[in-house]
């Protein structure tokens, strides 16, 4: 069971892309901290160490965390705690949790950590960046770095001109948010963003990595996914390149082979991580029509509670 949980955790598209392009992520989102780091020395992801301090991680919340050891330009090691808040709604105790993790790292390992957060929600007013309390004889003010992806909506030209892979990541994220309940528009943007990878001259490995992220977040209804693959297959043939369609076929083709039920489960796990066995069993009882309806509905799910409500409403008791 532990291995299954670990595998599901590794499936997070944000964690995967962060591991693949960590220096670029730091340079894109937190350039001042990136300037402190000697990138000639290898960085190290401290997953086991983070698991020791994150023992009470909330079930059902959507976020990705990475504890990373890097080297300061002056020689000493630095620990970075990178938090990516994917949850669509603001969290009241978010700043407190950031402080708690920072304190636990220091308490458990004797290492001060630079705490950084990437906020992916669509609430432009939610901008937590500190946790504090103040009493007559004791006071605390803990501040942490934040980046709000929402703000990049007004910097689209800058994103288009950037050769940093995280410009593509942010573009895919924003267009996913903006095309909620607009599947045809989402299909158009998904094709455009993937085509852009080829036009920018990315290497095959980079195209595959960034394609995986785009495909993971920009989920399409089944019929549009079929159209997308046909159009993209033709595009690759015209360019005499087959980096994706004859390689991994990560999207619709694999889902079609595994069946509608498996496709729905995979899509849900992309959003919420490994599903509890009780939910898997409930999904297995759905008819084909119900599965297709769930496949459409999950495009607008933002939390696992949305799935529970849908099942309560639509599943025969």
Automatic annotation (TrEMBL):
It comes from the Bacteria. This is DUF4351 domain-containing protein. PANTHER family: SLL1691 PROTEIN. InterPro entries: DUF4351. Residues 253-311 form the DUF4351 domain. Pfam families: DUF4351 (PF14261).
């Amino acid at each position: 069971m532990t291995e299954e949980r670990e595998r599901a955790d590794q499936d997070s598209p944000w964690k995967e892309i962060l591991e693949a392009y960590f220096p670029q992520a730091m340079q894109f989102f937190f350039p001042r901290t990136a300037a402190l780091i000697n990138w000639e020395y290898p960085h190290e992801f401290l997953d086991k160490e983070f698991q020791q301090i994150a023992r009470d991680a909330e079930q059902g919340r959507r976020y990705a965390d990475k504890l990373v050891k890097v080297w300061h330009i002056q020689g000493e090691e630095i620990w970075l705690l990178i938090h990516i808040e994917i949850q669509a709604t603001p969290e009241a105790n978010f700043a407190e949790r950031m402080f708690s993790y920072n304190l636990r790292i220091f308490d458990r390992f004797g290492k001060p950590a630079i705490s950084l957060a990437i906020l992916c929600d669509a609430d432009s007013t939610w901008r937590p960046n500190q946790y504090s309390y103040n009493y007559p004889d004791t006071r605390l003010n803990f501040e942490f770095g934040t980046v709000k992806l929402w703000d990049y909506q007004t910097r689209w030209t800058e994103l288009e001109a950037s050769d940093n892979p995280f410009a593509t990541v942010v573009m895919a994220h924003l267009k996913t948010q903006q095309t909620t309940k607009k599947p045809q528009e989402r299909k158009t943007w998904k094709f455009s963003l993937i085509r852009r990878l080829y036009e920018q001259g990315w290497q095959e490995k980079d195209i595959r990595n960034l394609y995986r992220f785009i495909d993971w977040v920009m989920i399409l209804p089944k019929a549009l996914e079929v159209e997308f693959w046909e159009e993209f297959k033709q595009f690759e043939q015209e360019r005499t390149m087959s980096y994706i369609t004859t390689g991994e076929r990560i999207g619709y083709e694999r889902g079609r082979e595994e069946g509608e039920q498996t496709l729905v489960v995979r899509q849900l796990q992309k959003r919420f991580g490994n599903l509890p066995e009780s939910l898997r069993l409930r999904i297995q009882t759905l008819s084909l029509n119900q599965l297709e309806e769930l496949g459409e509905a999950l495009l607008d799910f933002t939390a696992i509670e949305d799935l529970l409500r849908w099942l309560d409403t639509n599943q025969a008791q």
